[in-house]
TrEMBL record:
Single GO biological process annotation from the record: formaldehyde catabolic process
Keyword set includes Metal-binding: yes
GO molecular function, one term: S-(hydroxymethyl)glutathione dehydrogenase [NAD(P)+] activity
Classification via Pfam families: ADH_N
Lineage: Eukaryota, Sar, Alveolata, Ciliophora, Intramacronucleata
The entry's keywords: Metal-binding, NAD, Zinc
Limits of the Alcohol dehydrogenase-like N-terminal domain: 16-139
SUPFAM superfamilies: GroES-like (SSF50129)
Protein name as annotated: Alcohol dehydrogenase-like N-terminal domain-containing protein
GO cellular component: cytosol
Length: 213
């Protein structure tokens, strides 16, 4: 692709959408994988799968976010169908079941109002960007540049405790691996209110885990 910096119209958020003022963005493996194995977007389009920022405006029907919230953007994997018996939260289930990757309208670069869009509903390489609310996770701290790459591990880190391991309140959990996915998994596990979380990993990562968990 040929990249260039230019001024574009960023539409107000529509139903179920959130406009985010991006603070930090990064290069994601998805940015290259989309060209190697996936359908191509119409050109031009906004690139970028991973990033963090602040909610600038919320659209109709969005209840889980407020203006000023700190959020991380993450790509939603398609072709997942969560059971009604799963204890994944409603917001997480909506994110997976919507399968935004497979909806053809998100392959189009331009909206009906003429604004340019991101590929498959994301596009973090912009000062302002509009995303489906299901592409966002609320952060409990002001984002830093080290948070910019959270997106690629968020889907796994959020889905694993609920869908795969069925973690229950008060149970004890061990996380093997103190990498970025391990940290994301440990933080998402806290929402399940376990009795304790034991992380097995490198000693040099201990301070990072203690300060972020």
């Amino acid at each position: 692709d040929t990249f260039k910096v230019q001024t574009l119209f960023v539409k107000p958020p529509g139903v179920g959408e959130v406009r985010v003022q991006m603070k930090y963005a990064t290069f994601s493996p998805h940015d290259s994988l989309q060209h190697a194995y996936s359908s191509k977007a119409e050109y031009p389009y906004l690139a970028g799968y991973d990033g963090v920022g602040v909610v600038d405006e919320i659209g109709e029907g969005v209840e889980e976010f407020d203006k000023g919230d700190f959020v991380a953007v993450f790509p939603v994997p398609g072709n997942r169908n969560l059971s009604a018996k799963s204890n994944v939260s409603d917001h997480q289930a909506k994110a997976i079941n919507t399968s935004i990757w497979s909806i053809s309208k998100h392959l189009q670069a331009y909206s009906d109002d003429g604004s340019i869009k991101g590929f498959r509903g994301v596009g973090t390489w912009s000062q302002l960007a509009v995303f489906p609310s299901t592409h966002l996770l609320k952060l409990d701290h002001e984002p830093t540049i080290s948070d910019a790459g959270l997106g690629s591990v968020l889907a796994t880190g959020l889905l694993g405790p609920s869908k795969i391991f069925n973690v229950e309140e008060g149970s004890n959990v061990a996380v093997f691996g103190s990498n970025s996915l391990g940290l994301t998994l440990a933080r998402s596990l806290k929402t399940k209110k376990p009795g304790s979380i034991v992380v097995v990993g490198a000693k040099e990562d201990q301070d990072l885990f203690e300060s972020n968990c």
